[in-house]
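User: what does the whole thing look like in 3D?
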Amino acid sequence: MTIRIGILGYGNLGRGVEAAIHQNPDMELKAVFTRRNPASLQIATPGAQVLPVDAAADLRDAIDVLILCGGSATDLPEQTPAFVRLFNVVDSFDTHAHIPAHFDAVDAAAKQAGNIGIISCGWDPGMFSLNRLYASCILPEGQDYTFWGRGVSQGHSDAVRRIAGVKDARQYTVPVPAALEAVRAGQNPVLSTREKHTREVYVVAEEGADLDRIAREIEEMPNYFSDYDTTVTFVDAETLAREHAGLPHGGFVIRSGQTHGGHKHIIEYRLQLESNPEFTGSVLVAYARAAHRLAQEGQMGAKTVFDIAPAYLSPQSGESLRAHML
Amino acid sequence: MTIRIGILGYGNLGRGVEAAIHQNPDMELKAVFTRRNPASLQIATPGAQVLPVDAAADLRDAIDVLILCGGSATDLPEQTPAFVRLFNVVDSFDTHAHIPAHFDAVDAAAKQAGNIGIISCGWDPGMFSLNRLYASCILPEGQDYTFWGRGVSQGHSDAVRRIAGVKDARQYTVPVPAALEAVRAGQNPVLSTREKHTREVYVVAEEGADLDRIAREIEEMPNYFSDYDTTVTFVDAETLAREHAGLPHGGFVIRSGQTHGGHKHIIEYRLQLESNPEFTGSVLVAYARAAHRLAQEGQMGAKTVFDIAPAYLSPQSGESLRAHML
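Assistant: Here's the predicted 3D structure for the full assembly of 652 residues, as structure tokens:
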């Protein structure tokens, strides 16, 4: 009996989830729900349905876990509490400051309906959070460092695209190698924003646009760029399409601590991802397996990666995991 | 109300556990149990008792979790099933091939007594196992690599000490940088034992011993050294004491996989530990907290790191973890 999955939202992340389902033989994609015209969608799974979002309620008994692939700004705050009334759900809500409120809203709705809602699965929040938690529990005295990149920040790319005269743009967040090395060497440096990351921007400008003015507007943009050393490079549309089409990302979570005997210890977790949405989709799918199992045990309510024993993510039995992976 | 801890066995690991308890204000060391003469032990915790092992049963009601700090070869296979009949226990059993049998023995005894027994906590097995599990669940298609070191292998050091003419020795396991770089670069190399690690041995020889013969016996020792490129360096006792007194260790767990869309992803977990026993002791203490909580919930039986939700390791509430660490 496979775990029957639904996907809500078929952008980059929805396609990443679909790709991940193909790698997990205990799972099956039953339906994709979209706000677009279903006939306009070409999905990669023969046999799965493409349906309007409104039709989701009709498939309540045909789907074990619904994976929500909308955005954190406006989609998920509404969708996750709404759909957990109908399904076990998993989302990748990533607005760190609003996680407590999102958790409470999902928890209340999930408990009323008797379903499971796992929120904030991905890599940050998600795998990075797990590593922050494990490391801080093992080394209560220490410093945490998170570096992101080298990778594409969609929010920063969008911010540049809103500047007059910019046709298209791609922004990379890049950790500063010297800062990373100082942390890895156990020096526990105090690092300013500028010392931790640099920003690289590739811009396609409109013909005749004032390039100096565009570069200055980028470099001086508050919150997004003004606290960073930023490099702006103007390229043509073909170069952007050829060299900057991907969505790589990754980063480092490092805890540098010491035990009571005075010895130093460094715990480092690093991700190098060629495709941010495909990796995030893979995390969501692993937690969808956990959601299904927790629901089968009769558990309900909102959960995060902190609340879920690692074995729930694996298709293998406890015996097999102990024999082969411990 | 603090969590009251007992330590069984006061070698390097027992002292590491004691040091870790000092960093966790929600815990308190009540007693150290030893097979040596208790009067001969000088412990670092004022107010804690030092008692013979036989006295442990008398402190059943005074101790919430007993941390077993014996060796995996002969101590733990007997001690963990025996003491889980009296206490909730945590051990660092690390003979990978015998974990399933150890689990079964502890599980049966723990369920009979209504206690919790968490086995194989440390870094390998332990944190390395967790990272193997998480990474393989997220990237079902991929290759796992584990590198150990640079660090002291006590088993290899002991093996060298048994050679005639050797007064003392210290063996370091060292990952081969080129192999590590090939893995990190996503090349998925097939690596022989020799290609993954080298071994460095520092030997204090007895006066007049045949150094060539000792070096040859080390390099040709089956299982321990013959499959590796080994460097033997003869030093005097003072140099060994000055430069090789510590017990550093660490290593890397890397999964190099790809998602269905064909993109590559590398997940890397790295430890750099100045003191293997102090770090292992810190992991044991974090899981002792989990053991206490699971027991308070009425759970029983054997558990491993795979079975325990990460939040159980932390003294913080779920609310606090979600607000600050997710």
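In plain terms: Chain A touches chain B through 69 residues (CB under 8 Å). The mean pLDDT of chain A is 97.
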